Amino acid sequence: MSSILERIRAGPSPSLLYLLIGFILICALLKALQLYWRKKKLLRNFKSFPGPPSHWFFGNNKQVSKGNEFNKSLEWAEKYPYAFTRWFGGFSAVLIVSHPDYAKAIFGRGDPKSMVTYKFLLPWIGKGLLILHGPKWFQHRRLLTPGFHYDILKPYIALMADSVKSMLDKWEKLIVKDDMKSLEMFEHVSLMTLDSIMKCAFSSQSSSQTSRELNIYIKAIYDLTYLVAERVRNVLYRSELIYPFTSAGRQFQKACKLAHKHTEKVIEERKILFKEEGELKKIQKKRHLDFLDILLSAKGENGVELSKEDLRAEVDTFMFEGHDTTASGIAWMLHAMAQNPEHQQRCREEIKEMMGDRDTVQWDDLGKMPYTTMCIKECLRLYPPVPVVSRQLSKPITFCDGRILPEDAVISISIYNIHRNPSIWEDPEVFDPTRFSPERSSHRHSHAFVPFAAGPRNCIGQQFAMNEMKVALAQILLRFEILPDPANIPIPIPQIVLKSANGIHLFLKKLN
Questions:
Q1: Within-domain flag for 23
Q2: What are phi and psi of 362, to 5 degrees?
Q3: Are the C-beta atoms of residues 460 and 430 closer than 8 Å to each other?
Q4: Helix (H) or strand (E) holding 123
Q5: At which positions is heme bound (predicted)?
Q6: Contacts 24+ apart (CB under 8 A), 508-512
Q7: CATH number of the domain that residue 135 is part of
Q8: Which one-letter DSSP state was computed for residue 112?
Q9: Residue 147, exposed/middle/buried by CB under 10 A (0-12, 13-18, 19+)?
C-alpha cells in the first residue's frame, strides 16, 4: 500500500510523459498534413477563379469588417466579374457567384445545400426541407406542396390582415405616447409575422403580439441567426470540439432549447386536437386546413407517417422561415418606402382607389395593385430577405465561359450581388419600380431577379410571402405615412436573413 502511495506522490514516470508528448505530436502532425492536403485541394479546385489576396490562416476574414460585408462583396464582384473565390479562414473556401449566367447554371441543377455552412443550423432546425437533399428532400417537397395550394392560401388573407391590424393598433398607441420617438420596425414586424404564421400554418387561436411566449421565441430566433452568422465568420467557432465550450456555444444551446420548446408545444397541442377531429375531410368542415394538418396526415410511399424528428424539423424550419424571412422583406420594404415618399404616395393612392371605404385587404385585391406590386419587387431586389444561398456540387460543372469546378466544390450564390450587378441593372442603387413593368421585365435575364432562389429548390412559400407583403404594405399605407429617421440609417448585415446592425428605425404619422 505504501509503495502505491509513493508512486502517486512521485507523479507519472518519464517514459509515460514521453509517450503522451509523442502521441500529441503525432496527432498535431496528422492534423497539419490533413490541413495541408485540404489547402492544396482547394487551391486546385479554385485555380480558375481568382479572388482577393488572403491570409494563410484568416483567409479574407480580416478584410471584411462587421457592417461592411455587402459593400466589400460588391467591391470584389466589380473587380472579379461573374465569380470570385472567398476564403473563410485558411482552409475553407467558396466560390461567390455574382452574375445571373452562373446562377442559372447552378439553380438548374439539383445540388444539395452546402454542409460547410448549413451544418451549423442542424442543432436548431434539423433536417427539414431547407437542408434535406436527394430522395428524402423530393419526398418531403412533394408532401408539403399541397400546403401552398391556392385553396389553402386563400383563407389566410383574412388572418394576415387581422395580424397586421393588431400591429397597427399597437403602433397608434405608441405614437400617441411619444410621436418624437422612432419605432424599430424589425421587432414589431417579426412579432406580427410570427402571429400570422401561427394563425395560418398552425391554426393558433391566440392573437396577442405582446404575449411573453411569442417574445421569448422571437428573442431566441434573433440570437440563433446572430450566432450562426458569427460561427461562419469565426475560424475557431467552426470547430465542433471547441464551440460547445465557448460562451457563444452555450448561448446557442440555450436559444435552441427555447425555440424547440415553442415548436414542441405547438405540435403536441395539435396532435391532441387532430385525434379528436379525425380525418382531413372532417376537419375541412370545421376550419381551414393548414400546414400542420398536412404534416400530421402525410404518409410516404410506404404508407408510414413522418417520424417525430422529421415532423419537428419541418415545423422548426417553417416556423423560422415562414416568419423571419417575411419580416425581413416587410421591414426593409418600409425603409424603402420611407426613403422614396413619391412612390409611397403613389402606392397609397392606388390602394385607396382599389379598397374604397374598406380598411382590410381581401383575396381578390391581391391582383389589383400593379404599381404596389412593382414597388414590392423593387424592394426585394435591393433588399433580398435571403441574401446568399449555398450549394455543394454533386458533380462537376462547366460554366458558360468554359471555366470548370469539380465535384464537392462549394458555391455561394450572392443574390444581393446579382440584384445590384451594374452589367445587368442600370443604376442598380436607384429605387425604380418601373424595372418590373411588363415591358421592361420581358427583356431581362431570367435569373437577374431571384429573391426566392430558382429551380427545383426554390422557396416553397414564396406565394405565401408575397401575399403577406401585399397585405401588410396596403394596410400600413392606409393608416400611416412612413418617414425616415436620419439619426438611425440602417446598416445591412447577413444573419441568415438580411438584417440591420442597428435596427430599422422609422417615424410614423397617423393619417386622417
A1: no
A2: -115, 165
A3: no
A4: helix 122-125
A5: 459
A6: 508/171, 508/175, 508/183, 508/480, 508/481, 508/482, 508/483, 509/175, 509/179, 509/480, 509/481, 509/483, 510/172, 510/175, 510/479, 510/480, 511/478, 511/479, 511/480, 511/481
A7: 1.10.630.10
A8: P
A9: buried
Using DSSP, state whether 299 is helix, strand or coil: strand
Task: Please give the sequence-ordered ranges of beta strands (E in DSSP) within 199-344, or none if there are none.
Answer: none
Mean pLDDT of 291-310: 79
> What rounded mean pLDDT belongs to the chain?
90
Q: Please indicate, yes or no, if residue 18 is contained in any of the structural domains.
A: no
Average pLDDT over residues 86-102: 94
**Cβ atoms of 235 and 89 closer than 8 Å:** yes
Positive/negative CA dihedral, 496, 499, 502, 503:
negative
Q: Give the integer Cα–Cα distance in Å for 427 and 421.
A: 9
Estimate to the nearest angstrom the gap between the alpha carbon of 246 and the chain centroid: 25
Three-class HEC string of 314-378: HHHHHHHHHHHHHHHHHHHHHHHHHHCHHHHHHHHHHHHHHHCCCCCCCHHHCCCCHHHHHHHHH
Spatial distance between the Cα atoms of 150 and 464, rounded to a whole number of angstroms: 10
* Percent of the chain topping pLDDT 90: 68
Task: Give residue 368's domain range.
Answer: 48-510
In this structure, is residue 3 part of a structural domain?
A: no
Instruction: Please state the domain count of the chain.
Output: 1
pLDDT of residue 282: 58
459 assigned ligand-binding residue: yes
* % of the chain residues with pLDDT over 70: 93
Q: What is the pTM of this model?
A: 0.92
Residue 1 resides in a domain: no
pLDDT digits (tens, 9 = 90+) for 382-419: 999 999 999 999 999 999 999 999 999 999 999 999 99
pLDDT score recorded for residue 491: 96
Q: Which residues contact 403 (CB under 8 A, 6 or more apart)?
A: 48, 49
Roughly how many angstroms between the first and final C-alpha of the chain, as a whole number?
A: 93
C-alpha cell at 413: 450564390
Binned at pLDDT 50, 70 and 90, residue 20 comes out as confident
